[in-house]
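Marked as duplicate of an earlier ticket. Keeping the data here for the record.
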Amino acid sequence: METLTNIKLTVCTKLLLLVLLVLIINACNNMQTFDIGDGGLLSKGALCVAPCFMDITPGLTSRVDVIRILKANNYWSECVNDITIICYKNLGISFRKNTVDGVGFRPTTKITLEQVVEKYGEPDKFVVYNNENPEWIQLSLLFERIQTILDLRPQDGNIFVAEPSNKITNIAYSDIGSIEIFIVQGRARKWNGYRTYTDSNP
């Protein structure tokens, strides 16, 4: 069975890489943590709501405008401008033809699955990731109406128990094109409510 990293690289979408990017950024010990809060997911003190992050919207905002927005909010000094823009330890922004196609981040406030479902309704689809050694499993949920994918905190073993108290660890806002790629290449399946999930169940 493939490792989580290999599976995500096989899926090979910028959206998933953005979610993974949050984990990579944590290796940059010289960078600070961006106080993102919930990033607009639950609209607590945010400038705009999902899938908009700090007035940055996948499919609409240009790279030039992203840089302008980050500079205007005094965040640019903690950013690395490359193929993607990485800011602090917990924010990554990717582009397609100089237009944002994804914003991935790790929230700095606790968010549970129950809170998200109360606001947006049930997820549309899910993808399961397995890791062999040590053995653990993770569930990613797609909310098509807000063009958002949420990673739930991984669980030990090969069975994931989806319940209202599951914590959201990573968030990715994406454009429509990347969402469609996620569905097809990620082999996303229809969400079946709070229950147990494995890599093989429908």
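See parent ticket for discussion. The chain has one domain: 4-197.
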